[in-house]
Amino acid sequence: MRDGDQTAYRAGRLAGVAAAGLGALAQAVLAAPAWAADPTDQAYLEDPKLQEQLMDPAERSRLDLSGYTVTDPTAGFFDVGARRRWLRQASSPMIRAEVSGLSIGMSCRSALELPVINERFSLPGFYPQPDSWRLAAEPLFKFEDAISRLSGHYVVSGDDYYADCLSRMLDRWAEGEGFLHFEYKPVSPQAWFGVESSLFAAGFAYATVRDHVHATDPERARRIEAWLRKASERHISFKTTALSCCNNHFYRRALHATIIGIVTDDDDLFRYGVSALYSALHEMNPDGSLPRELMRGSRLIHYQNYAVLYLVTIMELVERQGYPIYELEVGGHTIHDAVEFDLAALEDPEGVGRRTGTIQDLWFMEDPQYFGWMELYGNRFPSERIDRLARTRRPIYNRSAGGFLTLYFYRPSESEERTEVASLADRSFRLDPDYCAKHPQWRDERDTAWRRFCEERLRALAKGADAKTGIPDPELVHEGDHQ
Hey, which of 33, 98, 271, 436 has its CA 20 to 30 A from 104? Predict the structure, then answer.
């Protein structure tokens, strides 16, 4: 096929996606050549039908969002004091296990010794070089984990030691100009992408200790907030005409602008975050799918879910500022439509594959961090469908987008507590095939009946069966789950 024919084919295919969502995509990709699913394809930019639906950065900048201002810089993304009080009386085995894990001390020195990332750096592409990307991004991951875990320790314990350590760490990165110098080129934006998550990790962690820092060291608070604001503003100042101008990467940039805008009382950053919600709802297909994410071919379910993760988190932040943003409707579309499409796709990925003619890459289904949005959304809109998907993935931890999300948002009912014991047991078995032999019920007590029961359940789980041979004691499940 000649280049001109390829361009025409791509433009027509993408226009079909815009017009009717997954149904049109199914017809468009059947028997499509391999190059047709290229996520870097830009032909859609030239298609007038798709242009009517998509919102480009120029149009986005003309949105009148003056009605959105930061109303409470202390609100963060949940009420830390109220949640701490609830955690102290919670009876849920899963929540108790999380609290117990965070009750073990964390070294402040190790956090403070992490080198500040303040030199110009680049990252290889994630899909072309996944191993090299992970190795190069490891310093970003260590930063995000350190601040998210310090934040978790503080939320659980209320110990000023952790709040002081976290603020000292952020102050050190502020002084060292962390994340202010990275390579950005349109052809190699991976460092730009990587910094996105580190910035919203910093914003979320700081939100949990902001009140403490302002009360104990106002000058340190000023330095941290000035740095966060500068880093966020610089990051969103880069422009691109690629797909990442307006897809899930835009939502990630909007997330750090939202949380940092809130904690620094910056209306412009806050409105940048809100603009992502208007853009996503404006572009949404009638079935709730997001056209820019549908363009990802075999990864369309992953990227729809990935986009929903950040959009729901932004909504939670905006809602905490007193705006009924979950009720926002643009062009007849709401965030609930996107959630509905996402849930249906997650429940039946094979069906999506059949309808599109593209087998879906489902690697992300085994990584709980991608389901963190369900804790926020499910807390406001309880749903058996959400609970069913989140149940076997709890406790959910996302090192950048909020940290210990199950710990901060999940409130199980009595029946859910009984179910979560079974889920914990299943996860503990899966995590360690030697669970039965190592368990104190056998190691210390030599309980033959228990060992027989344990091995039967382990064999059933290994076969993928829904084992119904009983549930170990909740206290012992916790111990086994952390072998």
Answer: 436
